[in-house]
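Hello Y.,

Per our agreement to keep a running log of every chain we model this quarter, I'm adding this entry. I've kept the format consistent with earlier entries: sequence first, then predicted structure.
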Amino acid sequence: MLGLYFLAFVAPYVSLLLGVLGVEAALAPGLVGVGLNLILRVALAWRFEHSPRSALAQPVAVLALLGLAINSYRWSSKGTIEWAGRIYPRRSLRGATHGA
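Predicted structure for the entry above:
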């Protein structure tokens, strides 16, 4: 899922940058991908009454989301999660759960 998110929302900007820097094969896919991304984001901004300029932050926001997801996976794979100076065991290690 993370790879798909990266391919859909970050790779077009990387492709466009490579195209601008001289990799001709990357320019057209980059333009199409960035164009579609901007159309989607501007339409969502219009629908939810946000600034259309927020569409420009999309690749940065997606990179932040991917970073959070990877960090969360890394924490949970250790068996414990630390938050605000406290250490929480994984749910399966806590014993019986109430209502779950």
